[in-house]
Recover the amino acids of this structure.
């Protein structure tokens, strides 16, 4: 009964910023990697950014220097700070977390998705 709830999406002009958050809750024992994916209309879902429990990060080339992923382990929350947004960033953004529940079963969980729209 683990779930991820996202927030922070919206409409912004090119060059603007948004901050997404994703909080995990439920019968959690531990969380390993967390990340953000996005899917634009007619395109495949792609990895945007990922972060390990120790804080190591990885970014898609298209967002390097503009997006920053971070996490608050005490709150079971991952964030995505998006700056210098471009119309090409328009997509539904999904958070993902590798979670071991209290029964020691490890699974990947997904958030419900949040729409980010960047106007030109």
């Amino acid at each position: 009964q683990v779930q991820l709830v996202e927030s922070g999406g919206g409409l912004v002009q090119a060059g603007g910023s948004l901050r997404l958050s994703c909080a995990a809750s439920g019968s959690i024992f531990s969380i390993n990697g967390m990340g953000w994916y996005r899917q634009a209309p007619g395109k495949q879902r792609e990895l945007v950014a990922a972060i390990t429990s120790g804080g190591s990060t990885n970014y898609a080339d298209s967002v390097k220097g503009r997006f920053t992923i971070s996490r608050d382990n005490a709150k079971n929350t991952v964030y995505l700070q998006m700056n210098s947004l471009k119309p090409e960033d328009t997509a539904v953004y999904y958070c993902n977390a590798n979670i071991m529940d209290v029964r020691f079963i490890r699974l990947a969980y997904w958030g419900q998705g949040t729409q980010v729209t960047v106007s030109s």
